[in-house]
Specification:
With 283 residues, the protein is an alpha/beta fold. The chain has a single domain, classed as Carbamate kinase. Helix content is 42%, strand content 20%. The strands form 4 sheets. The chain has a 7-stranded mixed β-sheet with strand order 5-8-2-1-11-12-13, sandwiched between helices. Strand 3 and strand 4 form a beta hairpin. Adenosine-5'-triphosphate (ATP) binds next to helix 6 and helix 8.
């Protein structure tokens, strides 16, 4: 009996959050690095369906770093990272699109549907939902900076109770343009800002942002982020992630979270408990 009361207690702890977040949009960036094994992917899908069934409107934006690397290796195509961005030529872009759209997007969408969701996978090319231009004047090749988001496309999907699953690729501005590779973190923050989401959550392969001594930083301010970037404590793939957090909260998203996608159900712990997990950046 004691156990059952504990279970009821746990459910009740979630109640205020269920009330608070009903009908709110959450943008969830599912990092390539967090898509580790079938069990974890399955738990991720369950968690998203739980959010969805209690009335939250989840939007999934996914990355695909590891899988893209593996495919590039297989095809013996070289690519390098600068400032945490994958420098993308036309050949790399073809692989990026193939893996993100053909493989990962499809896999996540299918999994969510298996668990009883109504997930619909698209890339930014669909209905021209994302348009971009070369980032930093073309410093990273076909890495793009989003210049326009057609909110209507996503709003329509949410209205019809779909779970949008978005691959971070944007359409180019001319016929035969291969499209732009958008860093998934920055795509998630821009989409969260554009739709005025309540939260943006980044699921990655680390407990959160770490300080020099590898201790978790539970909260971060803009000044702290700038200092950690300047001295190299924040580097690589964490750079676009913290930038994305700042961009989202600047634009009115209440909170941006960086959480550990390797931990089962970390997203439920973040959303439905008072302690939360990982690193939070507030407006
Ligand atoms: N200060 C820091 N604290 C925590 N992680 C950091 C820090 N600086 C750099 N990192 C690195 O950032 C990585 C997370 O970014 P990464 O781009 O690899 O993953 P992701 O964005 O979740 O996946 P993907 O890019 O495939 O979507 C961590 O695994 C870690 O190695
Ligand atoms: Mg990354």
């Amino acid at each position: 009996m004691k156990n059952k009361i504990d279970t009821a207690q746990t459910l009740l702890e979630a109640l205020p959050y269920i009330k608070k977040y009903a009908n709110e949009v959450f943008v969830i960036k599912y990092g390539g690095s967090a898509q580790i094994n079938p069990e974890l992917k399955d738990k991720f899908a369950q968690d998203i369906i739980l959010l969805y069934l209690v009335g939250i409107k989840p939007i999934i934006v996914h990355g695909g770093g590891n899988k893209i690397n593996a495919m590039l290796d297989k095809l013996e195509i070289k690519s390098e990272f600068v400032d945490g961005m994958r420098v993308t030529n036309a050949q790399v872009m073809e692989v990026v699109e193939m893996v993100l759209s053909g493989s990962i997007n499809n896999e996540i969408t299918t999994l969510l549907n298996m668990h009883g969701g109504k997930a619909l996978g698209i890339t930014g090319k669909d209905a021209n939902f994302l348009t971009a231009e070369p980032k930093a004047g073309g410093k990273y090749g076909l890495v793009g900076e989003i210049v326009n988001i057609n909110n209507q496309v996503i709003e329509k999907l949410l209205e019809e109770k779909f779970i949008p699953v978005l691959a971070p690729i944007a359409s180019g501005n001319e016929i035969n343009h291969p499209g732009f590779n958008i860093n998934a973190d920055l795509a998630a923050s821009k989409i969260a800002a554009s739709l005025q989401a309540r939260k943006v959550i980044f699921m990655t392969d680390i407990v959160g942002v770490l300080d020099k001594d590898k201790n978790l930083l539970e909260t971060l301010t803009r000044e702290e982020i700038e200092a950690l970037k300047a001295d190299g404590t924040i580097n690589g793939g964490m750079i676009p992630k913290v930038d994305a957090c700042l961009e989202a909260v600047d634009a009115g998203v209440e909170k941006a979270h960086i959480i550990d996608g390797r931990v089962e159900h970390s997203i439920l712990l973040e959303v439905f408990t008072s302690e939360g997990v990982g690193t939070v950046i507030k407006s």
